[in-house]
């Protein structure tokens, strides 16, 4: 039986680490992105996305502006609003969202079709360019947003709008004669349809999602047929050299063994595959999910939990190809991987999936947004030298500073909806068991066989490796509590907490299973969970050529980096002995962190003249005291160099 997340309305996060990020969504990110979709951010790329809806609704005159998927800026904003309202009602925000939904409803065509690009600019070309047109991708984000808003407010208007659109899609696509036998160029509608099925119980939406997965890559490639059609006009010129592997349509999904193509498309498809495998009892689809996950996380993932190493086409390349200074590692891709990992973890009850979810959330996802919530990274490199991040070069996609907004701005609202729904990642429940997946302070209630169990988790994780868990109302028939044992944890232990609030010298019987510590409970209990996770230097597999002879510094789930602000310029000249002691120190920097310091060496260069490029000078060293900060915090103190992987100082 699959585990399910706790209803966001029943979970209250009050965490020293995450609360500042989660509360930032409502206080700063949603208002900022509201200004963005209304084109009110000075010196930022215009969005025009809300204006497109007004034009399509006949409320304003004008031309469509932006990418073909510009509607998704509004959709993901509404999804974040829905999650935020579920956690904390806000009448003014809800009224604003309702006004947007009214505009969307007016923009819907009589037959249910909803897409401002094709409605305004090319109404005669509906469904004629599935490869590039993103109609189904945009539809999927509308569906997800409508479900989130319905769950957060109980209001059906937006949901009813997208249900009409979903019915049109079901009537348009399928294996049957008279229907279009295509599938989405950018996967996403599958996830939206599955969520519609989950909230309505209408099986046709699940069947439609299954069709899109089952048809993909079977027989003659649908996209190649489209692109070779006489008179076809490209929306994106780079698609003239299109290869099916880019959209994961090179093989039937059950035959795919390696993570390929555009990383975000892959994650959305894999997430839908996992949902369908569970809902339909499809073992072959689940086995494909396992295979793809293992390839991705064991051979194609960065230490920061990012994926998609190529700056060209935002895609996977080959095993162990993980360059640090020119990688893409789109924020959306790590969000998609967290979505995929959450599903796999809830289906299999294996902790290894949440180990990766945690890594992505604490590193790449948080790096994608500034601490004030008003600037963003689309690309997440592990090494930056600002001087060579030049336009029209191989590093033009690497930005040395977060941007106010983007012309293609999928990442900022994606980060917003993820942070607003953080509560869904903490627990997995099934009516008999509660699985603790992430260590985030919160209060919640969980239905255990018709009885409400209240649960409180208190922690200063990731800075302190200890968690207090209290359960009240445990049914007399008993229940199970499963606590994830992180893959980096040593000396994992659980103790009972006595009346004085101190952990006693003994603990409950603990069964280790699939990476969880499972405890059988028959009454109310307070538990103190501890483990060790000191700062340590780690190596990569030697086959990762970019990291050969280098080390990275991690502490628990947090990956650390060196910044120019602390360590000066030319960080590439820094060398580290991985046996050197590391000092941990609490700092007020970035709202409170554990900073790390350690001794290192740096190539001096004093003997080199300014006009000398090559020479026979011997290497001379200077001793340096190095300071490392969490990777997620980099670039919050201005432009400067940054590096995660440091050169190792070998003792011969």
Would you write up a description of this structure?
There is one protein chain. The chain is α+β, with helices and mostly antiparallel strands and 652 residues long. The chain folds into three domains: 8-227 and 245-300 and 309-425, Glycosyltransferase (Alpha/alpha barrel), CATH 1.50.10; 427-532, Maltose phosphorylase, domain 3; 536-648, no CATH class. It has 16 helices and 21 strands. The protein has helices at residues 19-37, 49-56, 71-87, 91-107, 116-120, 135-153, 157-172, 189-200, 203-215, 222-227, 263-280, 283-299, 331-348, 351-367, 411-420, 564-567, and strands spanning 11-13, 383-384, 427-429, 433-436, 442-448, 451-459, 466-472, 479-484, 490-496, 511-513, 516-521, 525-532, 536-538, 550-555, 558-563, 574-576, 583-587, 593-603, 621-630, 642-643, 646-648. Strands 1-5-6-7-12-9 form a six-stranded antiparallel β-sheet, with no helix packed on it. A hairpin with a 5-residue loop joins β17 (583-587) and β18. It starts with 10 loop residues before the first strand and ends with a strand. The relative contact order is 0.10.
